[in-house]
Amino acid sequence: MKVVSKKIEMIAHFEEDGKIKPLRFKIEEENKCEIIKVGRIISIDLEKLCGNKMWVFTCSSIIGGIEKIFELKYDIEGCKWILFKI
Q1: Which domain of life is it from (predicted)?
Q2: How far apart are CA 35 and CA 49, in angstroms?
Q3: Of the candidates 11, 27, 20, which has an alpha carbon nearest to the alpha carbon of residue 85?
Q4: Would the pTM count as exceeding 0.90?
Q5: Cα torsion at 24, 1, 79, 63 (round to 10°)?
Q6: Residues 36-73: pLDDT tens digits?
């Protein structure tokens, strides 16, 4: 996987108990917009960097006919989503 670290727009489901499930996100590259549906969540981890907590989701989806694994991060304090690796 390659580190891209891009802010993205995300549609996610937040359950009553606080669990988060990313559903799909929009990524913009070279004046082109693509919607990627999260096919499967492989793992969920809590990461702490310099006092900043982030949920890290390792996921897979079919993109362009090929299954790709990618890493999404949710910044808890900033309420922001990042496509970190793909």
Answers
A1: Bacteria
A2: 29
A3: 27
A4: yes
A5: -10
A6: 999 999 999 999 988 889 999 999 999 989 999 999 99
AA letter at 10: M
Residue 38 structure tokens: 């999260």
Copy the structure tokens of residue 72: 């999404």
Please write down the HEC assignment for all residues of the chain.
CCEEEEEEEEEEEECCCCCEEEEEEEEEECCEEEEEECCEEEEEEEEEECCEEEEEEEEEEEECCEEEEEEEEEECCCCEEEEEEC
Domain spans in the chain, listed from the N-terminal domain onward: 3-85
